[in-house]
């Protein structure tokens, strides 16, 4: 979804399976009805006691993510946009959300004092949401 534009719809799959290395998992995201937009990542533990994992994109990019209760959250910045992602289990389904924040469209306010600190707010460029259902 983008403000002022028609909502786009698409299919998405998330395939999570044990990987070849013990304790690691495939984290394969597929957009669309074919394997054309296939993103075969690996989910690796960093510090499971603290809920810290990393998504290895297999090209040198590592994205930190954190487990909080029934959800996995992450945030990363690429080419002037910060992406915040949430994967949350609800009613035996996976609710997926992505927020895209444009860091170049910043609005500053506040006085920069202890009582009224400086605050930056940003344009949320787009929002994606979907509900994934387990296929057995």
Total individual domains: 1
Q: In one word, what is the shape?
A: globular
How does the helix and strand content classify structurally? mainly beta
Q: Identify the strand order in the major beta sheet.
A: 1-2-3-4-5-6-7-8-9
Contiguous helical run count? 0
Strand content: over 45%
Mean pLDDT: 94
Distance between the amino and carboxyl termini:
30 Å
Largest sheet: 9 strands, antiparallel
Number of DSSP E strands: 9
What is the helix content? under 10%
Unreliable parts: none
Radius of gyration: 17 Å
Strand/helix succession: EEEEEEEEE
Walk me through what this model shows.
- With 136 residues, the chain is an all-beta fold.
- It has one domain (12-133).
- The chain is 0% helix and 64% strand.
- It contains no helices and nine strands.
- The chain has strands at residues 12-18, 25-31, 37-47, 52-56, 62-68, 71-78, 81-90, 93-109, 119-133.
- It has a nine-stranded antiparallel β-sheet, with no helix packed on it.
- A hairpin with a 5-residue loop joins strand 4 and strand 5 (62-68).
- The protein starts with 11 loop residues before the first strand and ends with a strand.
- The model has no long low-confidence stretch (mean pLDDT 94).
Compact overview of the structure:
The chain is an all-beta fold and 136 residues long. The chain is 0% helix and 64% strand.
Write the layout of secondary structure elements.
Elements: E1 12-18, E2 25-31, E3 37-47, E4 52-56, E5 62-68, E6 71-78, E7 81-90, E8 93-109, E9 119-133
Antiparallel strand pairs: 1-2, 2-3, 3-4, 4-5, 5-6, 6-7, 7-8, 8-9
